Amino acid sequence: MATFSSFHETRSRLEKLIADTEAPRWRLGLEDFLQHWWAEVIGDLDAAMAAFESDVVFRTYGSMGTSEEFTLEQRKAVYQAIQDAGMCAGGSWDNERFYFGDAGISMDATWTFVHYGAMLADHPEPVDPGALYLVQRPLNLQLPLTEEGHLVGEILYAGHPSLVEPIDPARKDDLLGSLK
Which of 14, 94, 146, 152 has its CA 20 to 30 A from that of 129? Predict the structure, then answer.
């Protein structure tokens, strides 16, 4: 079994980064990101979307999507479909590196999540569409910020999976750490 952080371990590292960040603009952006990501993890879609300014931009590039731009409502519909399938819209991450610049915040990481095989169209090996898999993939996340530091977008660049491992459905909810 692959090694990876639980949701709580990932959250603890992000909270430490926020506490250690001195620049108010970037700290606010990280706080908004934490609110958004944690709301994805616990399935609170309204809170996940509330972290963004109203003029938000969502895009997914790489092996998981197209360069198509999504509105707030379209992105919420995607999250709802993931949630309806019994999945978590967020994942944990490891080996994260954050970069701060004029446009906002960027993060490189290894992203870990649980998905059905049907959600792995970019995996070159055959998978059972109805089976659950632990998935890891490289991720670059761009978080554009307002001048004050609020999130105005989420631009995701996802690489092909580096790990796709079948899991027992009974372990799905505990694999990345119990949220109860």
Answer: 94
